[in-house]
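Here's what a typical entry looks like (Fido domain-containing protein):
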Amino acid sequence: MNETVISKRQQHIINLLLIRSYGRADIATWFRKTYPISKITLIRDLNDLIEKEWILVTGTGRAVKYQLNEKNRMFLPISLGDYFSEKSNIRQFAGESFKETVFKRLYKLFSAGEMQSLSEKLNKLSQKKAVLDPNIYQKEIERITIDFAWKSSRIEGNTYTLLETEQLIINKKEAEGRNKEEAIMILNHKDALNYVLNNSGIFRNLSIEIILKIHSILIKDLGVSENIRSQPVAITGTNYLPPKNNKLLNEYLSELLEVINNEIYPVSKALIAVCLISYLQPFIDGNKRTGRILANSILIANDIIPISFRNVDELEYKKALILFYEQNIISAFKRIFTDQLIFSNSNYFRI
């Protein structure tokens, strides 16, 4: 669905309906306390949201109720600032368990217009390799590897700086005062991306074996189990709890792969991979890292420059994922993902 512009008032209505359905009188009462508007303005805003297919109206007369249009839930234009505001109570009613319906909702993530716009901004790796001096091409691969290993590790709490990461990857020099595990995490990212670059053909269709392989590279020497977990995990910053049962995890992982492999558009495939692996959390640790590498493996397999995430705001990244966990709303993360994709395609292999 195309993203549409909504007003601050309409954003407040959507935020309210994230909690439950409300009658117009209830919505008006809430607005009188927090964001005073006239009855006519409220009716106009509600009708506009109905026309844009963000909300639905049911019942008649005094029994009229407004609710979110679940068909378009994934794309709801939610403000991360509003959702995570200390003044907001939306998250008190957030989902705390995995929803199987997510598999059926992850389709048509990009409109024809969005795909056309992106295609004009994306570069083919093979074309860059054909026109660049081999040494220059390899230097750019090295640069994107360093940036990706640094930022992906930073998202996980790694304290290495970008310059320290460069020294580690190029000169194998560990930074003073850092944990050994931080250096291992970064070098594992480098090895995982190298594995993808050297075996790009196998990533056109993902399998459980491929996911396990990528995860095993990422968690090597970090004391983490390589297998699909058989015990519960919790996620910092949210009450959402991924599935506990090992049998269910394997079933969901198979469904996840079916959704990814059935998707035709490579950018959608990559977006689905990073979100669903993070949402399902099939491993004890290393899930989000695995998701990011898998997303890049799909892009590389489709001859698209991978994402380094170099200039992403780590907190915004985490908030956007939590919004997906709690509400199955992908819009905020989709914006971050596409912005970073465009950034990578405009900042690497420019020579």
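The mean pLDDT is 94.

More examples are in the samples folder.
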